[in-house]
Amino acid sequence: MRSDAAAAFNRMHAAAKAAGINLHVNSAFRTMEEQRVLYQKYLNGTGNLAAKPGYSNHQGGIALDINVGGTGTSTYKWLANNASRFGFARTVPSEPWHWEYRP
Ligand SMILES: [Zn+2]
């Protein structure tokens, strides 16, 4: 990840932990090759929606996929209420797990 995004995430992770929430990251920075594989899985119908190689914010080092378990969970609600304090925002309407550092 980009160092400023990683530092902000570490602060958010600590605040969540203090509130009894564990922010588990499934995916952060991806290389071009990793993005190519994910995109091919998406095209094949065997993977989640993924951006074309070169077009993912995961490649820019500012995106995180956090294991929220849906929009009704305490983890998701904590993020919805607190992530903006740390510079994070949800940017993909269909992906409640995808958060980006956009201070
Ligand atoms: Zn994502």
TrEMBL record:
<dbReference type="InterPro" id="IPR003709">
    <property type="entry name" value="VanY-like_core_dom"/>
</dbReference>
<dbReference type="InterPro" id="IPR052179">
    <property type="entry name" value="DD-CPase-like"/>
</dbReference>
<protein>
    <submittedName>
        <fullName>M15 family metallopeptidase</fullName>
    </submittedName>
</protein>
<dbReference type="Pfam" id="PF02557">
    <property type="entry name" value="VanY"/>
</dbReference>
<feature type="domain" description="D-alanyl-D-alanine carboxypeptidase-like core">
    <location>
        <begin position="1"/>
        <end position="103"/>
    </location>
</feature>
<dbReference type="InterPro" id="IPR009045">
    <property type="entry name" value="Zn_M74/Hedgehog-like"/>
</dbReference>
